[in-house]
Amino acid sequence: QLLLCIFTFAMVLVPEAKDQGKAAKGRRRGPARAPTAAPALTWAPDDPYTTMADYERSIQDVARQLKNSSEPGDTKCQVNLRLWRSNRRSLSPWAYSINHDAARIPADIPEARCLCTGCINPFTMQEDRTMASIPIYSRLPVRRLLCQGPDEVGHKPSGKKCHKKYQMVMETIAVGCTCIF
């Protein structure tokens, strides 16, 4: 993704800057030519979006791996440089716990929790409380079991108070931790 951003920057912004610089120096005679837009990137993935079922299955797989993990629970505020996982190599390390909600699909979502109050000082490898570890949140699409009143459009009135129905909603989940001053 980083390479794609750099490539896009180079293709779109750099040629425009060159054109504007030449026009400002007066090297061109006659009316200034309007800057032309760089050609759009022609590469696009075949299927940029996965199905909701694939998305939910991938979250369930991660939650299952977390539940079945043989590693001891992460509770210490320390960096482990031998592990390849970024959550334990971070200066603001975090561990995952399962956020369970039976009225949601997927019911189990891995959620990050910060292991330090402060941050790890990279020189001493000890916790430094002059900085703070805070969670990073992301909004994830989930299907939630919601009630709809019987008087809403498309629903026939009945003796029940509401009709249970899954609806797509965005839920805020902690996905990692970072260090702030």
TrEMBL record:
Transmembrane segments: none annotated. It holds the Pfam family IL17. It comes from the Eukaryota. Residues 20-41 are annotated as: Disordered. Coiled coil: none annotated. Keywords: Cytokine, Secreted, Signal. The keyword Signal applies. GO terms for cellular component: extracellular space. It is found in: Secreted. Its main location: secreted. GO terms for molecular function: cytokine activity. GO terms for biological process: inflammatory response. The keyword Acyltransferase does not apply. Residues 1-17 form the signal peptide. Belongs to the IL-17 family. This is Interleukin-17B. It comes from Merops nubicus (Northern carmine bee-eater). The lineage of its organism: Eukaryota, Metazoa, Chordata, Craniata, Vertebrata.
